[in-house]
Amino acid sequence: MPDEPGRAFREAWIAGVHRHYPGEPKPGYVAPWAETPDWERASAAAVEEQVRAFVTATDGRTARLSREQKGRFVALCWIGQIFRHFPDPKPAYVADWADLPTWQRETDADIFESIEQRAG
Hints:
Elements lengths: L6 H14 L17 H20 L9 H19 L16 H18 L1
Helix pairs in contact: 1-2, 1-4, 2-3, 2-4, 3-4
């Protein structure tokens, strides 16, 4: 089901990992939707909806945001989902933007832009 909530997020994540990850990504990073854990699918759906709502609430003016601002938005929304699903997450799972590897920052920006294009 292509319009299943969260699927666009996951597809953009996988594409971004393939584009930006240095070397061979971990299998879990590029696992297909059907193999993605339930909590991760629910989180992808929630963050995808947050991005769509933000694009809508700004009447599409999110196009004026920098890639960094877009990526930060996705990263922060994702951290909220981690706290929602894990009572005591590993620090790496809730790392601040500056502490994320470059590939992940670029992938988060790609995710925002992909959802933004679909919403517009």
